[in-house]
Amino acid sequence: MSVYFPHPEWQRLNERFSTDARPELSEGGEWQFDVQSNINDIVMLSFEGLNNVPQAYDIRLVDKSLKTTLDLRKHNRYAVAGRGEENPKSLALIIGQPAYVDEILTDFKIVPQEYQLSQNFPNPFNPSTTIQFGLPNPDRVSLKIYDILGRLVITLLDDELKDAGYHAIVWNGGNDNSNSVASGVYFVRMQTKTFAQTRKMLMIQ
Predict the structure, then answer these.
(1) Spatial distance between the Cα atoms of 36 and 58, rounded to a whole number of angstroms
(2) Which residues pair with 116 in a beta bridge?
(3) CA end-to-end distance (rounded Å), the chain
(4) Res 19 pLDDT > 60
């Protein structure tokens, strides 16, 4: 796996592109980067050293394609689905004063007007897939996978409190015992106190 900043205009130094990426953070800054993996499985990103960022600044990780944002001060890990070297994942790191960060996130239109459970992608998949859902307000969410006979395969979220906005969970095709499931039709069900929806998924090995 590799994480890189795709800026060919940077100067080449010792066979690597390099530049000073530290701006004067009067209000804030944004850094876009790509994650590339040679596996088709979950890639877990971990962000360290965040305590060095002044407490006055918010730190957010943004996935523009999924319209999701993660407060890295609360959770410093983020899972993405590896899709091979030819399909890098683009993310953005935003650091700045709360008003600056809120203005950028507003431009992403990351808060839906109603509850949503999107179709997983890719679909069909092997073995990992991304499940996206949206909340218009903070709410407790359960997200579970069932087989075609209605048996519970795995619980991805168990009545977990989530902020308003879009969220994404990567399922690697495993069950609650961490064993890989067989090819076939599966169902993902999202449930809150006032909303429930189910989507059909197809796993092909």
Answers:
(1) 26
(2) 134
(3) 23
(4) no
Q: Which two tokens stand for residue 205?
A: 């090995």
Interatomic CA distance for residues 65 and 58, integer angstroms:
21
Q: What is the C-alpha R_g of the chain?
A: 19
Residue range 27-83, pLDDT digits in tens: 888 888 888 888 777 888 999 888 888 898 999 999 888 888 889 998 899 988 877
Domain 116-203 coded CATH 2.60.40.4070: yes
Q: Label residues 90-114 b or e (16+ Cβ within 10 Å = b).
A: ebbebbbbeebbeebbeebebbeee
DSSP letter at 180 equals: B
Cβ atoms of 50 and 22 within 8 Å: the answer is no
Segments in the chain forming alpha helices (H): 98-107
DSSP letter for each residue of 17-72 = EE-------SSEEEEEEEEE-SSSSEEEEE---GGGS-TTSEEEEEETTTTEEEET
Distance, CA of 141 to CA of 156 (rounded, Å): 10
Fold of 2-107: Immunoglobulin-like (2.60.40)
> Is it the case that residue 161 has pLDDT exceeding 90?
yes
Q: Model pTM?
A: 0.71
* Neighbour-count burial of 45, counting CB atoms closer than 10 A to its CB (0-12 exposed, 13-18 middle, 19+ buried): middle
